[in-house]
Amino acid sequence: GENVEQHPSTLSVQEGDSAVIKCTYSDSASNYFPWYKQELGKRPQLIIDIRSNVGEKKDQRIAVTLNKTAKHFSLHITETQPEDSAVYFCAPSMEYGNKLVFGAGTILRVKS
Amino acid sequence: DAGITQSPRHKVTETGTPVTLRCHQTENHRYMYWYRQDPGHGLRLIHYSYGVKDTDKGEVSDGYSVSRSKTEDFLLTLESATSSQTSVYFCAISLNNEQFFGPGTRLTVL
């Protein structure tokens, strides 16, 4: 089965700085790479995803980059704001496989 | 919220008692999932369902059973609750790869 690791487990940044979270996976068949955000006391929600035929995808201040050869993908958040403080999960999987394996999560704290 | 509700939202029970958590969805989604969330472990899949009476085990299924007799309801049962099952339980549906989660149930087993 898929083995997923996220690094770092916690990350503190100053407001306005950038944050990068890396996710490594083991199953070379994975072709769908989402990131979920979970605010304190709330449910996880998808914030961005990428498929293996694309190397990078951007949505305003967030981006995801994929290195399929090395089997890792990363979440990039620029110009961080206090509302970016949350736990972020990666969940590499087979597209339309309908079964996700989540990483252990990264706690991001943005200090104002 | 993709029309997903969970009940109860909070429950405190004693070791050895049976517990059933309910997930209800209103939009006829085929795929439904139960996860548990614990600090340092992220979201771990307990059981999932591909349709009515079609279920399968996830990575942490021991001590749990599920049933899906109607499309809209996916029930998670702890036959005899243990303290290690104290957790937050999330139900989810899948739509075009994206998983939509319910609000969660906080279960405490004393």
Strand residue percentage of chain B: over 45%
| Largest beta-sheet characterization of chain B | 7 strands, mixed
Helix content of chain B: under 10%
Q: What radius of gyration of chain A results from the CA coordinates? A: 13 Å
Main β sheet profile of chain A: 5 strands, antiparallel
Whole-number average pLDDT of chain B? 95
- Give the low-confidence spans of chain B: none
Strand content of chain A: over 45%
Distance separating the two termini of chain A: 40 Å
* Element-by-element helix/strand order of chain B: EEEEEEEEEEE
Describe the 3D structure.
- The complex is a heterodimer of chains A (112) and B (110).
- Chain A is mainly beta.
- Chain A has no helices and 10 strands.
- Chain A has strands spanning 4-7, 10-14, 19-25, 32-38, 45-51, 56-59, 62-67, 72-77, 86-90, 106-111.
- In chain A, the strands form 2 sheets. Chain A has a 5-stranded antiparallel β-sheet, with no helix packed on it. Chain A has a 5-stranded mixed β-sheet with strand order 2-10-9-4-5, with no helix packed on it.
- Chain A starts with a strand and ends with a strand.
- With 110 residues, chain B is mainly beta.
- Chain B is 0% helix and 61% strand.
- Chain B is built from no helices and 11 strands.
- Chain B has strands at 4-7, 10-13, 19-25, 32-38, 42-51, 54-57, 64-70, 73-78, 87-95, 98-101, 105-109.
- In chain B, strands 2, 4, 5, 6, 9, 10 and 11 form a 7-stranded mixed β-sheet that branches.
- Chain B is globular, with a radius of gyration of 13 Å.
- The N and C termini of chain B lie far apart (31 Å).
- Classes of the chains: A mainly beta (112), B mainly beta (110).
- The interface between A and B is medium-sized, with 23 and 20 residues.
